[in-house]
Amino acid sequence: MNMDFNTILKQINDIFIDVLDNDDIKLTPESTAKDVEEWDSLNHIQLIVAIEKKFKLRFTTAEISSWKTVGEMCSAIEKKLNG
Amino acid sequence: MVLYNELKKNLKKDYSKYKRIKIAILADSASQLLTNAIKGYGFIGQLDYEIFEADYNQIDLQIFDPSSELYQFNPDYIFINRCSEKLLKEFYKKDKATQSSFAEYVTDNTRNYYSTITSRLRSKVIINTFPEINDSVFGNFATKIQSSFVYQVRKTNVLLMDLCQQSKDMFICDLAGLQSELGYSFVFDPKVYINADMVYSIDFLPYIAKHITDIILSITGTFKKCLILDLDNTTWGGIIGDDGVEGIQVGYLGIGKAFTELQLWAKQLKQRGIVLAICSKNTESIAREPFQTHPDMVLRIEDIAVFVANWETKVDNIRHIQSILNIGFDSMVFVDDNPFEREMVRTGIPDITVPELPEDPAEYLIYLRSLNLFETASFTEEDEQRTKQYQEEAQRNILLQTFENESDFLANLQMESEVKPFNSFSIPRVAQLTQRSNQFNLRTIRYTEEDVKRLAADPSWFTMSMSLKDRFGDHGLIAVIILEKQETTFFIDSWIMSCRVLKRGMENFTLNTIVDLAKANGIDTVVGEYIPTKKNGIVRDHYQDLGFELQGDRWVLDVAKYENRNAFITINN
Predict the structure, then answer these.
(1) Which residue of chain A has the CA closest to B34?
(2) Cβ-Cβ contacts under 8 Å, A64 against chain B
(3) N or C: which terminus of chain A carries fewer CB neighbours within 10 A?
(4) Distance (Å, rounded) from C-alpha B451 to C-alpha B331?
(5) Separation in Å, CA of B360 to nearest CA in chain A
(6) Testing the interface with A: which of B195, B199, B200, B203 to mutate, by most A Cβ within 10 A?
(7) Interface of A with B (CB under 8 A)
(8) The pLDDT value given to residue B107
């Protein structure tokens, strides 16, 4: 499945809206957990599981903790999908 | 199954119309998401859960400290959720001798939890079985080793079930059973466990929430009592009107095995007290024939309490079945292969449960099982007699139509009632009636068997159970009266009657009996109260009809002025 960075970001944004139940979320590559009010550690787990399901891939525990921004998360997904 | 995220969204909805239930969740793993799932599933079960979630891993502290938050919260239910992953860790810390008796050790702990809680609270305790983990230390040989975890976790589950059977207010949420249906890799998510110390996968949480809610609903009196089956392509394969008795698929013909297995299941349900009814678009004589003559039919005509086959709509026919059985639509399940009929019944009778069926009959049974439709909080021998009782009721209805007036009919029934204080034989049935009766129930106070035992032994409480039989059959125990003696007054704490005996003069007979008991105990006033619920509207005017006078919000009867009311029931002690 080939998918470019912006498409992934758009889909990640949709997942955030659904999981966090907030239609106003607008993620950028620079967004961090601080920028999104509901993005706490509990919701993080739920987000990861939803993203894995959506893109049909698995992250390692190390990968999950290495991302600092949404952009890094999207790049990791892009690499896995196209790699 | 509904997804966790949907349950989470339910948290923002309005629960104010729903019944309030206080539940404490004590878990040995991180339980925030489980708590959300349970609260959110309450919306589906129409329960407004007020939840106390103990801090992480505080089970012992909350239970053994009498001043803990748990005891201040005073919940209706306590869910003690222990996980297999923590159990395994604890097991590994023990020496070999202790490992060999690990199941007893876990069970003793659980018994201790239960007895400590019930000595301080009236809460019901829900524990869980442990989903099995095969730790692959011994391979298959673990089954031959007492000190293996595989052996001990299985044994623990059996011992917990034994414990639960001896403990009336303990219930088990069977997570091990759910895991055998869904698989370990579905139930447990190692990533979520390692990162957040939550043992259950996000997709499994709704299952736990549903089963907790199923258990609580059944204890509070909401559960299924009747299974209504369509015939063609539901109870057997093919169309009886076209294919004939020899041509329908049941037993070894075609895909008959799928239908036979569904029938075997329905028969088991019938034996445990679920009433079976048939609702089919067919000519009645043709529809009945397989039940009478087909050698491979598991269900026989005597298994069916109400048999309706005609060309009316199914909505009308199910209403007819309901009027004979006299139970709520919300306690009925209707199974039909035809999506059009299902939709019409759902629209016409919103309270009834109509499962979507898979297209392939081979999948009917496994699908129906997965819905856990028939959760129950009790099981007595009388449940097994229920079909016969409903068939007798149909005969009485036919007799009633031959009499000019009701008194002649009642006299002709030759009714006899046995009146007794609660005893060890009646206590389970009494508790069951208090839990199940919604309609003829003046105050809807629910009692467990333990509660009933306490009342029966307390000299300031007077109890009566009443049975009724007539020339068609025995209804068994059908009325429960609990009176609290307050100086020279009897307060009617509970007046519950089975709706099967409505319009028999049983109310009159019961009041006569209460007044007799009052006189024998120097009581001058009998006081009753009606607490309205969504379902007990039929007894709104109960006390007024019986000659009580309204004083404030209580109904009062002067014993001295009471004249015995007309009843066609003889007392038989």
Answers:
(1) A42
(2) 191, 195
(3) C
(4) 26
(5) 28
(6) B195
(7) 18-19, 21, 41-42, 45-46, 48-50, 59, 61, 64-65
(8) 98
CA B516 to CA B385: how far, in whole Å? 32
Q: Render pLDDT for B220-262 as a digit per residue (tens, 0 to 9).
A: 989 999 999 999 999 999 999 999 999 999 998 889 999 999 9
Rg, Å, chain B Cα set:
26
What does the buried/exposed string (b/e) look like for B206-225 if buried means 16 or more CB atoms within 10 Å of the residue's CB?
bbbbbbbbbbbbbbbbbbbb
Question: How distant is the Cα of A19 from the closest Cα of chain B, in angstroms?
Answer: 6
What pLDDT does residue B401 have? 65
| Chain B residues near residue A41 by CB distance under 8 angstroms | 196
pLDDT at residue B188, rounded to an integer: 95
Q: What is the end-to-end Cα distance of chain A in Å, rounded?
A: 10
What's the ipTM? 0.86
- Cβ distance of A46 and B5 shorter than 8 Å: yes
* Under-50 pLDDT residues of chain B: none
Sequence-distant (≥ 6) Cβ neighbours of residue B514 within 8 angstroms: B464, B481, B483, B490, B492, B526
* Alpha helices, H only, chain A: 5-20, 41-55, 61-66, 70-82
Contacts of A49 in chain B (CB under 8 A): 189, 192, 201-202
Q: Would you call B358 exposed, middle or buried from its count of C-beta atoms within 10 A (0-12, 13-18, 19+)?
A: middle
